[in-house]
Here is the input.
Amino acid sequence: MRASTIKAWYLAHKWTSLVCTLFMLLLCVTGLPLIFAHEIDHLLGRSIEPPELANAQGPADLDAMLADAQARRPQDVLQYVVRDPEEPEFWFVRLGEKITDAEPSAFYFYDSRTGEMLHEYPLGEGVMNVVLRLHVDMFAGLPGTLFLGFMGLLLAVAIVSGAVIYAPYMKKLRFGAIRRGRQRLKWLDLHNLTGIVTLVWLFAVGLTGVINTLAIPIFGQWQTTHLQEMAAPHMGGEPGPTGSAARAVAAAYEAAPGMELSFMAFPGTSFSTDRHFMAFMQGDTPLSRKLLLPLLIDGNTGKILERRELPWYVSALLLSQPLHFGDYGGMPLKVLWALLDLLAIAVLWSGVVLWLKRRNVSFESWVQTVQGEAPAEAPERRAA
Amino acid sequence: MKAQTPMQVWKVPLVLGALSLVGLFVALVADGPGDVASWVALGAPTGAGFFFALRGRDTE
Here is the structure.
């Protein structure tokens, strides 16, 4: 590679990194506890384990649980019922102050076997909530999220350009070599090592993070196209009573054998129509478990009105979530996610140190220093 | 040390990168053995990173 080409890539790496590094540090540091959010919630008592029952019971009537939830917050409305195939002992019930609210007002755990209300998840409070908000939008709503997505794109450019200049820098060094004797070279070698081993992982987690920042626009696109088209043939007349959620759930299970309910939206949310339920079913293989099949259901008759696969861009979003969270391969995968995250923090931190230490050295003398050629020691000695 | 060709420089990173890719995707498409394979595959770049970063020896 010609020196001028290397310099161009070096500058691309330097400037994209400089802009995004502090935000990436924020994301890596807040992301670390979020890898274990589920475990931390249980540890802090924010979530609970289902109680052991002496003898098999149930299933309990879902409509009765929903009536109970409604009675607890008469001023609010039922928005979603949610299932977790790994915890089939629960029905989760979400309410909102208004039916279209993106933020829930309450999230209840019901025992699916006895119908008993077991737990209310504490919303919008605690350290983990602060950590999550910093990670998702820095308390700045959708603009904050989209901004972080843009920083993620800069990270992608920084990763690619960093990979391009890896080879010229490593020309005379074995893989993993760290020249500990010299301060700046030590940081450079650490940066190169941690950067190159986390390259693919950080690229994957970064890009899937960018896709996640687009969740609201992506679902918005689905709502104005696919959802509208599913609803259109069934919107005649005035909306009447919407019928039974339990009947709708039963119909959904019957219509999608071998699948599990992921969640069902009540009529009036942005994931349903003003008169129908929409059940989102998930498959039972490792891959199809991450994808959803929407079923439009009449709660009065229990009839499935429409079933229509999600468009590719929603599926891409759904598949990018596990690849960002690292929650799809048990606890060992989460631990690896955390360790790789620590290495990524080392990449970012060593990058900051390098920038602080070598601001006043020209690119040419720096490259010579790095590659161990003669004239290079002078500027470093001066700086030291 | 003599100057290496780009291929020599990239040999280990390419292997670790390929293992990372395998590790990221195999757990997504298969449970059980797929999970174990992903731990091993992603463990390689992670282990290499910590091993070389933390070993005390100066490798001039």
Remarks:
- The CA atoms of residues 20 and 42 of chain B lie 5 Å apart.
- DSSP finds two helices and no strands in chain B.
